[in-house]
Amino acid sequence: MKHKHKVYLKLNLLSLFCIGVSFISITLAWFAYSGLSTVTTEVDVKAWNIEFMKDSKVVTNEIVIDVDDISPGMEPIVEKVSIHNLGDSDAMLSYQVVSARVLNTELENQEEGYLVDLLSHDLPFHINIGLDDRYVVAKDGMTNFSVSVTWPLDSLSDERDSKWGNEAYKFQQEEQQKKQNDSSYIPRKSLKIVISVKAEQFIDAPSSPDIRYNLGDLILYDVINNQRCQTLSDTCLKTYVLDSNNTIGDTTVTLLPDLYDTYSNGTYMNYESLLNETSVSWNVTTRALTLEDILKAISIDNQNSYLTRDNLSDLIIGNLNYPDRISDIIAKSKEYNGAFNFSNEKFPYLSSNKCYWLNTEYNEEKAYTFQKQSDTFTKIYGEEKNDSCSVVPIIIIDKEKLL
Question: Directed axis angle between helix 291-298 and helix 325-335, to 10°?
Fold first, then answer.
């Protein structure tokens, strides 16, 4: 491909993004609850007030994210909007890609989650969209909506790079020609995405998030008496919720015991011993921790959870909700001698100076382990099966036991 055709897509991000927010701070909805105890007409009124803020400023229902250009090997771009609930009712949050245009192609949302997955994984550049939480509690609850944009220097497909370079060059030339023919014409940017973010009154439905069990929440649990407990002891352990999206309809909660304790007959064992381990003598349901368990958790961070590979650019893990995406990202790590990295600050309950086995093979000689590498990050990598690491079971608890 000639040099002039190596066009780096210069994308203005709205250009990239036009986010339609359904419920905004300037909109107040009122919910009246009849509670007439006397002959007066007084009723209780609850205020609905959701506020979206960017850079400490309240934003309206159209959030414009501007970036001069985007190109292979660029520094990651991150835009974040904080969502504040100043009202009297808990709110559920959701978002949807309403439309997406890449050059002259309008991408169709074939089914739920399709466009979010496509933008995250199937283009040379990667656009990851996410909510830290699916709800905000009443009276000053807060969470974040974020978008990260990355373009690895090496896409592993020269054919795809050439295709995108040629199409981008042609698109830009056509837009400039239209401008020359009509001075009032405003050239389109290479890519435009419209995202709708919606806040709705919290409904106690099976698919609603269970706000009692958020990823990383601390729960003290007695593994012998099989019940919640209040004071740490040999049997009352610190555990952390490992479910990334526990819903009201879920009947169980997955708990990860604190990593700074010992949970097997031997503190360290090789991988084959892990497979033969009958777990600890607890009166609770347990199973081995897997790579999939951790990836589901750390993938909610669309800025600092990434895949590293030999002689290749780092790759943000991205959205893993679509079918087979977890298998795909694991296969990429195996194919290119890769490892996963995540933030200790974001996931302190997954960070330990000890290495821990995961019940997931890397190859015939290795299995996945994870261990803190610095004050900043923890690494998930392949370790020789004959080496020694710690073992931690995860606990599956009926919610009835936690009430």
Answer: 110
| Structure confidence at residue 169 (pLDDT) | 82
Nearest to 297 by CA among 236, 256, 334: 256
Residue 323 scores a pLDDT above 80: yes
Q: Up-side HSE of residue 275: CA atoms within 13 Å toward CB? A: 8
* Tokens (6 digits) for 194: 């419209």
CB contact burial 168-185 (16+ within 10 A = b; e otherwise): bbebbeebeeeeeeeeee
Contacts of 111 (CB under 8 A, 6+ apart): none
Judged by average pLDDT, the poorest of 101-105, 206-210, 283-287 is 101-105
Give the residue-averaged pLDDT of 275-291. 78
Contact 280, 267 (CB under 8 A): no
What percent helix, strand, coil does the chain show, rounded to 5?
Answer: 15, 35, 45
Residue 77 has pLDDT above 90, yes or no: no
For tokens 């740490």, the residue is: 232
Structure tokens at 217: 């929440």
The candidate with the shortest Cα–Cα distance to 117, out of 299, 291, 298, is 299
Does the pLDDT of residue 155 top 90, yes or no?
Answer: no
Which pLDDT does position 311 carry in this prediction? 84
